[in-house]
Design brief:
Length: about 100
Amino acid sequence: MAIETWPRETREYLAVVVEGDDNLSTLPVQMAVLAYGVRPAEDDWETAEWDVDDDGATVAKIKIGPGTAFDFSAAPGPKVPWVKITASEELPVLDGEPIRIS
């Protein structure tokens, strides 16, 4: 699978499919989008949103691009989206498919 390329000037939602047995949309979700190979630190997380994609899958999404917490206009290159879900007894952290900022 080819890595999707996003122009550094774009500002739009980046979504990650999240599978789960419960109604995920009731749980707090955060995302971080970091350079490839970098793992998230506690201060990297930003509040994200739940949505459903065109295929009916549940996704966590966050805006990236100029004017957002994840503005890569000065630092293009490969990035990885991370998702953190706060559940009552668990705190799952998932990594998504990498993207390339051009």
